[in-house]
Specification:
The chain is about 25% helix and about 35% strand. The protein has five helices and twelve strands.
Length: about 220
């Protein structure tokens, strides 16, 4: 029986250092059934709570239009929300606006602790990838980018549990790490979109004997 892909959001958090773009990455624990010991971007699957997030800022119009060619508005926002919620859980970094969050749900505790509401307005869409059939986990993953300036809180003593060896790396160094092949693709898309502002993001599909790229 073919597993149905679960929606997921990942975040490429970037900064510029010495005129080089750096991206935040971490290594998945060996205990993970899906891509153990591989370096990835923060992110994870969409949870029910993501559909009801008390947002302080919405997706940029073009990002929402692009995503809504493939999913509903509600799902598009939930995917983006999952990317910043998971980033908060895995790195301690909060992307939001200072405000009292109107929910007591435990998923938003990192935000509530610093009096912030999640904000997805600074996210741009980089790529989409669906795990091919036959894998132990399948995800319909959407990759977003946000600049470090979107972060309003960075803890001084955060202990990473889900992602080990959390670090900032330039793109050449990133490619030398042990990466899933889709992560190689997304890094390339980040460079492509930086070189061609306004170019559309793409969707990678792994077929039986080839890889297909489609414009989103």
């Amino acid at each position: 029986m073919t597993l149905r892909p679960k929606l997921a959001g990942s975040l490429l958090l970037t900064r510029t250092k010495n005129e080089n773009i750096e991206v935040l990455m971490g290594r998945r624990s060996s205990a993970h059934a899906f891509m153990p010991k591989r370096y990835v971007f923060p992110g994870g699957r969409v949870d029910r709570v993501d559909h009801f997030a008390p947002l302080s800022g919405d997706l940029a119009p073009q990002c929402l239009v692009t995503m809504c060619r493939h999913v509903s508005e509600r799902k598009a926002r939930a995917i983006a929300v999952s990317a910043i919620r998971e980033t908060a859980e895995e790195t301690g970094l909060i992307i939001g606006k200072h405000a009292d969050i109107p929910t007591r749900h435990k998923a938003w505790m990192p935000f509530r602790n610093v009096h912030a509401c999640p904000n997805i307005s600074g996210l741009s869409l980089i790529a989409r990838a669906i795990t091919p059939p036959g894998r132990v986990r399948r995800f319909d993953a959407w990759f977003f980018r946000a600049d470090i300036a979107e972060v309003i809180h960075e803890p001084s003593n955060f202990i990473a549990n889900e992602l080990e060896d959390l670090r900032w790396v330039d793109l050449d160094t990133a490619r030398s790490l042990e990466l899933p092949h889709v992560t190689h693709f997304v890094l390339g898309e980040l460079e492509r979109l930086d070189a061609k502002p306004g170019a559309p993001p793409r969707h990678i599909r792994e077929l039986a004997k080839k890889v297909r790229l489609d414009t989103l």
